[in-house]
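Final report, Chapter 2: Outcomes

The project's central promise was a pipeline that accepts a single protein chain and returns its three-dimensional structure in a standardized token representation, suitable for archiving and comparison. That pipeline is now operational. To close this chapter, we reproduce one record exactly as it appears in the project archive, with the input sequence first and the structure output second.
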Amino acid sequence: MLTSKQRAFLKSQAHSMKPIVQIGKNGLNDQIKTSVRNALDARELIKVTLLQNTDEDIHEVAEILEDEIGCDTVLKIGRIIILYKESSKKQNRKISPKVKDLNK
């Protein structure tokens, strides 16, 4: 669970990022979940966009991704979800040490 300090930090980090994963008319399928998983492992913090042509609900998508991938939703705004998860690969952990420091 993220604290408000952590959330604020992650929001500021994500501000200038471009969405990496887009959910379109095929909805939230396994391929998209794999993309999200891989992107989170590589970067820890990503933006996911729901395109105009999807029937998916942003809240449901965020919930499913949280449950299945074990990530945290930093923010849902419009059609964009910002997700965070500590990378399982040590060399990719650029953001998580800073996030942990905010808890002290």
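Archive annotation: The CA atoms of residues 27 and 45 lie 21 Å apart.
This record, like all others produced under the grant, will remain available to the consortium after the project formally closes.
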